[in-house]
Specification:
Layout: H1 3-7, H2 14-45, H3 47-55, H4 60-70, E1 76-81, E2 85-87, E3 90-92, E4 97-101, H5 125-130, H6 133-143, E5 147-148
Antiparallel strand pairs: 1-4, 1-5, 2-3
Helix pairs in contact: 2-4
């Protein structure tokens, strides 16, 4: 008997529940490792920033935040629109396969001056990770009644609600 059958009103079927629990278990591990590697690579590619950090360890927290802004490890997530909906000014019909790009907001020139520059002295980088473009969008995509996880790939319109996201 599935959770939906036992409760009568449970929102996720068994595959969806397993997918929901699977995502943070593995994604958290992968993103943490990838972010550490990215931080090392970024200061090696930007020796001026490494020098600033070596001279002022108080910049460490900001360097982490700027790394998260500059190099978002979970840049996109696939979802399928469960019903007709709008994302911004674009109408999405039910069944539409959505590639939600979470990294684009961190390079928004209306929010960040010179957004393509890695700068550990940047003010406001913490808003990118705290508001968590990835977290907010993932939460919307996970919990929204309009978008459900699926194994969809472009061209596959049959996978709505079939389990783990890409």
């Amino acid at each position: 008997m599935s959770a939906r059958e036992r409760t009568g009103d449970f929102l996720l079927d068994d595959d969806e529940a397993v997918s929901f629990l699977h995502e943070p278990l593995f994604a958290g591990n992968e993103t943490t490792r990838a972010t550490i590697v990215a931080a090392i690579a970024l200061v090696l590619r930007h020796p001026d920033q490494m020098t600033l950090l070596r001279q002022n360890w108080a910049l460490l927290d900001n360097a982490v935040e700027e790394t998260l802004r500059y190099h978002l490890t979970g840049a996109a997530i696939w979802r399928i629109a469960a019903r007709d909906t709008w994302i911004g000014d674009i109408e999405q019909p039910a069944g539409a396969i959505l590639n939600l790009r979470m990294d684009s907001a961190n390079r928004d020139a209306s929010v960040f001056a010179d957004p393509d520059r890695f700068d550990i002295t940047r003010k406001g980088s913490e808003s990118a990770s705290r508001l968590s473009v990835m977290g907010c969008t993932t939460a919307w995509a996970t919990f929204s009644p309009n978008a459900r996880p699926g194994r969809a790939r472009p061209g596959d319109r049959t996978a709505q609600g079939s389990g783990a996201g890409a």
